[in-house]
Description:
Elements: H1 2-42, H2 52-57, H3 60-75, H4 83-88
Amino acid sequence: xxxxxxxxxxxxxxxxxxxVRLGQVVMLIGAAVAAVHWLAHLGAFGDEQPPGWVDxxxxxxxxxxxxxxxxxxxxxxxxPKSASEGAKEGRG
Length: 92
């Protein structure tokens, strides 16, 4: 009985774990974008500052958007593939 239960839940948890990891990677990329932007303002890459439009588009706002998108991906639960799987999870 227990082996059947584990076999049935494995695809659900695999999809869930994949989504969480994907969301974490997107959040990490967003944090890296914000960190590089901050370092550019400190002059770590030379004395030249990025142009104003790059500052508005590719700086902190882009990093924040990526962090939020990653959090949404990581927190969203995958939908069960069948009605019986949804009943096991308490959703149907």
